[in-house]
Amino acid sequence: MRVRTLTTIVGLLFSAFLLAGCQEPVYDDFASIEDENARLKQLLIQYENDSRNAQFQVQDANARAERVALELDAANRKLGIYENEMPRLRNIAANAGARGMSDKVAQQLSALAEQFGGVVVGNRLELPGDFFFDSGKYELNPNSRAAIRRMSEILAGENLFLMVVGYTDNDPVRNPALRSKGINDNLHLSLLRAKAVVDELRRAGYPPLLMYPTGWGELRPIVPNADKASKKLNRRVDILIDPAASNIFGMSSITGVEPIAMAR
């Protein structure tokens, strides 16, 4: 009986020893599994983030593609308008007068420009930057209305084609009154400035079919927009008299009409 009891005790001790020896490997395996699970969870989180970023990138690319498609469609429509207008422009330019701007007209325009601090360069009437408009506006100043009407009187009967080109400085459009009207960029503002001059010429009696307004916004500054003084110079409207004469902006190649000789 004592031998059996002793044997039982020894067996229990041996079993306990074996169990004690197995504890460490079991614990190590459990820790490894936990580490692996943590690593896989981290990978899953990273994958979800990457997937989400990729979805955002695809959405952004699709949005940009839609914008480009809309811009291309608008450009095609504008090109169609130009193509439809080309015969009319050719006819206007071809019948704009046999002699071009006379010496008398050139002298009168030079006197007009000098009166308001401007100059006539070739076939281009240039007046000071803020002569026509205040910053951020497209309503004509009172002095400019008088000058435009005088210009119409000088050119009366000459039948010369006028291209009226508006420009701005490089300040973005911030005026709430303008933005509320959908005028959000300088290109739009410059076109409205050119149109204001054309409208005043029309009211003064100049033939509407002999005028074409356009705008370059901030794209063609005459000086760098370094300070207020230079920006004032860049806010301007150029009135090009028989623009094909100087081939400005490639006008001859656009209309297919040879320039009219300018008398001097």
Cα separation of the termini: 144 Å
CATH superfamily of the largest domain: OmpA-like domain
H/E topology pattern: HHEEHHEHHEHEH
Morphology call = elongated
Number of domains: 2
> How would you write the strand order of the largest sheet?
1-2-5-3-4
Largest sheet: 5 strands, mixed
Residue share in helices?
55-70%
Q: Report Rg.
A: 39 Å
Q: Would you report the number of β strands?
A: 5
- The chain-level structural class is alpha+beta
Explain how this protein is built.
This protein has 264 residues and is α+β, with helices and mostly antiparallel strands. The protein has 2 domains: 1-94; 97-255, 60s Ribosomal Protein L30, Chain: A (2-Layer Sandwich). The chain contains 8 helices and 5 strands. It has helices at 2-94, 103-115, 129-132, 142-155, 176-179, 186-203, 228-234, 251-255, and strands at residues 119-121, 124-126, 162-167, 211-217, 237-241. Strands 1-2-5-3-4 form a 5-stranded mixed sheet. Strand 1 and strand 2 (124-126) form a beta hairpin. Helix 2 (103-115) runs antiparallel to helix 4 (142-155). It is elongated, with a radius of gyration of 39 Å. The relative contact order is 0.12. The model is unreliable at 95-99 and 245-264 (pLDDT under 50).
